[in-house]
Write a structure and sequence with these properties.
mainly alpha
């Protein structure tokens, strides 16, 4: 049975079994691999706005970008999330990272 390792989810998520079945039929993935892919995608889209901003800030900072470049890039990326969060100003982004 497929278990979803995301916030607030019931341990057994039968509705996703059909997706795993589809992936097994339509790709070269084995059932365990397809299950892991589904769980990884669900976890990615379960990320809160705060988690997304902090993660992207760390990623972009590790690439050597400066905060003004980082916050501008994050502002432009946010509307393209699966469930677009509200638009945040640079100041709001800074507060999510630094408190």
């Amino acid at each position: 049975m497929l278990e979803r390792r995301t916030r607030g989810a019931d341990a057994s998520q039968a509705p996703y079994e059909d997706l795993v079945d589809h992936l097994v039929r339509s790709t070269p993935l084995q059932r365990g691999e397809a299950t892991r892919v589904v769980l990884d995608v669900l976890a990615y889209f379960d990320e809160t706005t705060e988690e997304f901003v902090r993660r992207r800030h760390r990623e972009l900072q590790s690439q050597g970008l400066r905060n003004d470049e980082i916050f501008e890039r994050i502002r432009h990326e946010m509307p393209h999330r699966a469930v677009a969060p509200p638009g945040l100003s640079t100041r709001q982004l800074r507060r999510l990272v630094y408190g």
